[in-house]
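Sequence, structure tokens quoted for completeness.
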Amino acid sequence: MAKFVIAGKADCPFYAKAELLAEYLQKNLPDFRIFKITQHPDVWEEWLKGVCEKNKWNHKRSPIIWREMIDRGGKGLLLGGYNEFLEYAQLYYGVTSRMTTQMMMIIAQENLETHIEKELEKEAMKDLISPLQVWITSAASPASCNLIPILMSGEVFGKNTEISLTLFDQQKVENYLKAMVMEIEDMASQILLRISYCTKIEEAFQQAQVIIVLDESTEREVTSLENCLRSKVSLCRLYAYHMEKNAHESVKVIVGGKSFVNLKTILLMQYAPSIADNIIAVAMGVEGQARATIAKKLKTAASCIKDVIIWGNISGTNYVDLRKAKVYGYDSAIWGPPNRPDFSRPVLSLIFDSEWIQKEFVMTLKNLTATGKQFGGILAAHSITTTLKYWYHGSPPGEIVSLGVLSKGEFGIPEGIVFSMPVKFENGTWVVLTDLEDIEISGKIMNNMTSDLFQEKLVALGNNITFQPYKSESQVIKKLENEPSPTSYENMEEQMERSNEIIFEDTGDKDSMFYDLFPDEENEPIFSDESEDKFDAYL
């Protein structure tokens, strides 16, 4: 059996002549087989160079013809170009070619047109079977390890959506990423088409359609909260640049974790404005903690609690709103009809202990979110994948979902900050539920939540030197009461000046965004103030 490979430029007339001669031999000789390769003229030289280097041949023209040693193994035997192939056919088979030059040129042009058509068909087929390109940052983190099996289950993007997954992290964890790749391959997921890793930032997010941004490693020493905040700028600027440069134009970016989630989201939006509308922050982790805490109080399952709203800073000062919260299938004196599984009762009507709501409930959530306790890899992974599932397939009808999005003035929230608020997912996007009734937020609570978000951004960008947590008037008075009593009216004035410094950062400008941001404060229920614990949460 003689097998010959004939390769050449698609528009080469000598390739056309060799091709027809080889087809004649294959048709008339039972043991003669050919395999044809055409390359576009623009890539021919590079392709030829690669083939010759691989086989240690010396050939620089089109076509190139070699015999595959299929009967003996080993590399192919180079025959040469058209002239060498013609001599071989004459010597061994007594056959030659009498094709005219004009006919050679016509066939060469037809070959080029056919080659281009085939390449276009290949690209079209690739689009039909192209997998969803998913990237995970900080892929060596525990959250990533819990996230990947859920993504591979088909529950997030769909059972029929194939995935190409890329794990992105630092060079120092490359060996760990290699081990992860091997382990993921061993899962033999039906929807996983490809798995790879990347440690080079310049190659990050190539053709990415979904990017999951997890908390970065904190092994390096961080000396202050301000340094923590400023470190986010360089990282987010780098990520955002390569997202805009390398990712798909419709890429979806989802930011999850427990450290400065709102800040990282707004920075990515600022440095990647072309995709800003497709960047969101996950709030379902905090929402899940609130639902679980209520469920324990009511002695029911957390899945029976719905429509808890998280307002504000997801990983900082937030407001857990139970005014729309409902419990389904609750064992009490009032039961809904058997054929009405959607029957529910307001949570606040079933918790008669208002002191528990205002104190124990608030403190429980504060301890959980402020220090990151109970917010490990499992909860982060579940929150991210559930949010992604809703983004692609829509949230359950009538259900309220909390999500960190860029404020456009909804609910009286200042524009230009990423703020957790109630939304619903539909048709591949989200809609802020501005039509909800009786969910107005008092100015006092709003100021408390927004002040930390503004200050995080200002400190991170270097506009403020230090972070000044919001202090209400009642907190200032309490601080003054603990200080020695003044001995004169002048001392009292000095002390009040010091208290003002606690509330306001002196910008020297009465038009500053903080000038009228802090009205009198009263005690409010269901409010979590995490500002003093930000640094602990980061560490």
